[in-house]
Structure to design on (472 residues):
């Protein structure tokens, strides 16, 4: 066992360190608690099985840690970035998923699983490509103006789902009862925002604003009669998660491969940013402990291969598409614990939780009004993170090329979702998109192809000088 204590009494664990058993289990439980709210909320919103999602999250994390050669301390949970395309896919090809009160839709899950596996293959290939040619070359094909704009579109496209839940219209609530749902939703929203803003830097509790907001909204919803506890009473304590297998033989599934894989374009920068941030903290701790720097920032390609490995696991089991969690990364920074064995213990705890039937049933009693309140906040953050990426990368928005890329992606993605029937562009591709191309997918494809055109025919070839950026 390695107890990393320097001569100046600084305590912390580097990725290769193994804390004592008690510390490892308690630190691991904290990691599970931190990822739990958002991970199970994604499952509840998209009608995936909560037990499978927890099981896949834990197992996927362990596999990803092993693939990264136990060098990159990351925990994997459900990604909000994929919700828009999951909603679209299920609404098109498994129409009963969101038109019924059922909390789980295996028919839709099986279709989406094919797309998640496609995402896994895409991430692994991109990771291997970066390991060979370097990230700078990839950034030319997927510049921040493209990835940031796609993230913004994803967040805005989810606005309708959040408000439909907030109003209760997603479950067909009578108009005269909608006020209850709106009231609970906005109370949940305000509480979550207050927890997020005023509990910053307050230790573990400061990392759990979504959980606290969900609990607060849940308690408020009870006297309004919006919570039904009967499923919890009927469920057994221990149950087998509803594992499903991908619908590879369904002709509609292959369009999901393209659709869902393209969303990874928006998550790759997020994953890379997490790696850079983590590397700074880990190497600072190593310096304070008088040990060699770990330099995990040099493992960008391997990190994406690990991301893909996680998605392979969740794709085959029927869990939600994953991402490495910023919340867990922040918790590691606060506790100065970057131990990979701790994260593997956390994965084991999540696997065990996946078999607790009453826990999954309790999560599924979360009222849609509370989900709507949380969704307004969380989906908006996805969009704002797209803006933050463009801002942090100092994208030159005085350059007509960048303006054209961002503008086209935004209008095709957001406008297509608002104006076109079912949010589908009427361009069919046999075998992939027989009914047309979803707006978010079309927007991403157009943005990527337009950027490739600018790479092949740069404005400088025509004597055009690049405009200076505004330095603030």
């Amino acid at each position: 066992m390695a107890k990393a204590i320097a001569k100046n009494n600084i305590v912390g664990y580097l990725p290769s360190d193994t804390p004592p058993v008690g510390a490892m289990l308690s630190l691991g439980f904290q990691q599970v608690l931190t990822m739990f709210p958002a991970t199970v909320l994604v499952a509840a919103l998209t009608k995936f099985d909560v037990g499978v999602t927890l099981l896949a999250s834990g197992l996927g994390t362990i596999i990803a840690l092993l693939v990264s050669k136990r060098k990159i301390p990351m925990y994997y949970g459900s990604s909000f970035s994929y919700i828009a395309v999951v909603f679209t896919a299920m609404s098109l090809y498994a129409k009963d998923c969101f038109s019924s009160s059922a909390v789980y839709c295996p028919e839709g899950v099986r279709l989406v699983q094919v797309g998640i596996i496609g995402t896994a293959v895409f991430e692994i290939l991109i990771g291997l490509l970066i390991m060979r040619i370097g990230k700078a070359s990839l950034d030319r094909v997927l510049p921040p103006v493209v990835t940031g704009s796609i993230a913004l579109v994803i967040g805005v496209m989810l606005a309708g789902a959040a408000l439909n839940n907030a109003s209760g219209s997603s479950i067909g609530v009578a108009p005269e009862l909608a006020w209850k749902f709106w009231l609970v939703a906005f109370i949940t929203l305000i509480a979550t925002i207050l927890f997020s803003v005023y509990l910053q830097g307050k230790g573990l509790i400061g990392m759990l604003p979504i959980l606290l907001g969900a609990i607060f909204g849940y308690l408020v919803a009870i006297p309004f009669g919006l919570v039904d506890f009967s499923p919890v009473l009927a469920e057994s304590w221990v149950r087998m998660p509803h594992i499903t297998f991908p619908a590879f033989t369904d002709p509609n599934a292959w369009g999901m491969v393209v659709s869902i894989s393209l969303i990874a374009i928006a998550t790759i920068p997020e994953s890379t940013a997490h790696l850079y941030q983590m590397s700074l903290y880990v190497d600072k701790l190593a310096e304070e402990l008088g040990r060699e720097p770990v330099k995990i920032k040099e493992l960008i390609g391997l990190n994406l291969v690990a991301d893909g490995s996680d998605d392979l696991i969740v794709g085959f089991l029927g869990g939600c598409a994953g991402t490495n969690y910023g919340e867990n990364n922040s918790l590691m920074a606060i506790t100065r614990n970057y131990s990979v064995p701790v994260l593997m213990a956390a994965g084991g705890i999540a696997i065990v939780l996946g078999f607790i039937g009453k826990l999954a049933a309790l999560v599924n009693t979360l009222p849609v009004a509370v989900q709507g309140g949380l969704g307004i906040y969380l989906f908006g953050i996805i969009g704002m993170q797209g803006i933050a990426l463009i801002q942090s990368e100092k994208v030159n928005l005085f350059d007509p090329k960048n303006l054209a890329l961002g503008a086209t992606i935004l209008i095709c993605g957001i406008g297509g979702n608002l104006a076109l029937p079912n949010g589908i562009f009427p361009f069919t591709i046999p075998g992939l998109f027989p009914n047309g191309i979803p707006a978010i997918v079309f927007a991403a494809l157009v943005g990527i192809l337009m950027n490739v055109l600018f790479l092949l025919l740069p404005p400088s070839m025509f004597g055009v000088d690049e405009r200076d950026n505004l330095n603030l």
Observations:
- The chain has one domain: 21-456.
- Residues 21-456 form one domain.
- Residues 59 and 347 are 6 Å apart (CA to CA).
